[in-house]
Fold this sequence. Notes:
2 copies of one chain form a homodimer. Chain A is of the alpha+beta class and 140 residues long. Chain A folds into 2 domains: 4-84, Orthogonal Bundle (Arc Repressor Mutant, subunit A), CATH 1.10.10; 91-134, 2-Layer Sandwich (Dna Ligase, domain 1), CATH 3.30.1490.190. The first copy, chain A, has helices at 4-13, 20-32, 38-47, 54-66, 109-121; strands at 36-37, 70-74, 80-84, 91-95, 101-104, 124-135. In chain A, the strands form 2 sheets. In chain A, strands 1-3-2 form a 3-stranded antiparallel beta sheet. A 3-stranded mixed beta sheet of chain A has the order 5-4-6, with helices on one face. The termini of chain A are far apart. Chains A and B meet through α5 and β6 of A and α5 and β6 of B. β6 of chain A pairs antiparallel with β6 of chain B. The structure holds a DNA duplex (30 and 30 nucleotides).
Amino acid sequence: MLNTQTILQQLSDQGFKKTKVRELLIGELLKLKKPLDAQALQDFLSDQKLAVNKTTVYRELQFLLERGIIVEINFGDNKRRYEIAGLAHHHHLICNNCQGVEDVFVDQDLVKLEKKIAKEKNFAIHSHSLEFFGLCRHCL
Amino acid sequence: MLNTQTILQQLSDQGFKKTKVRELLIGELLKLKKPLDAQALQDFLSDQKLAVNKTTVYRELQFLLERGIIVEINFGDNKRRYEIAGLAHHHHLICNNCQGVEDVFVDQDLVKLEKKIAKEKNFAIHSHSLEFFGLCRHCL
DNA sequence: AATAATACGCAACTCAATTGCGTTTGTCAA
DNA sequence: TTGACAAACGCAATTGAGTTGCGTATTATT
């Protein structure tokens, strides 16, 4: 289930602690439902009067990533971003001007394409990255 | 035209010098036709008995990029790679095991998809990134 | 309250990439 | 051929994202 307390409880059942950092990070990622980088998340914690070391942020992200609670998204600017997992599979429209992010759902087209490629090239596709860059309606 | 001397001449006509570094880098990128990172290119120059500082490699790549002679490709590992520009538009199959790269041509499917999205979302798409990750036929 | 595992802070470090600045080299024109 | 000047280069220092080691603190359990 996609809510902070449920996720925290699942982690707790596995022997991990319920910490304020964990709770706030999961909450923010659940709320914004968009890819955020380590810096943005550290800033968010600061705003919540919970200033933590960047190492803590990186470690927490690594922790959540390894447990499949978040996924890594790459915009091609050499900066890792993280998004809550479990959202419907989608891709992003990234505005080159305002850096805004919109989701886009590419129905079965991609799945069909992947299968075609896998067969043709004899390559087992495990994942793909697909992001679109341009100008959003406001920046046009 | 896609050959080293033509490109060098075009640059020369614009007032830039014909240097050995420039010539070798363009030649290698033209020959291999696959994305290479700065380290790989510096190593290549070394092999050609032309040991240069990494700054020179980075500056040359920046230079070629700004003039549209090469394009930047991102595999999501926070490392910039460069490929000669002017190749037919294609994407990459990246093997998670041997790091090998295969090209894949995704006919008009993507173009159609882009137009559909652009219209629906009122978003001007300038470019996209699409790479596939998995296991190649040898590593399967 | 004691214990143990998890979580955290801090400093140092890695790795890709960039910057400042002084020097060298390619090019062109006298 | 030789100046002269911009382009190109080397080197050291720096930036920025991310990681590591290690000692300390916190959470949960008994």
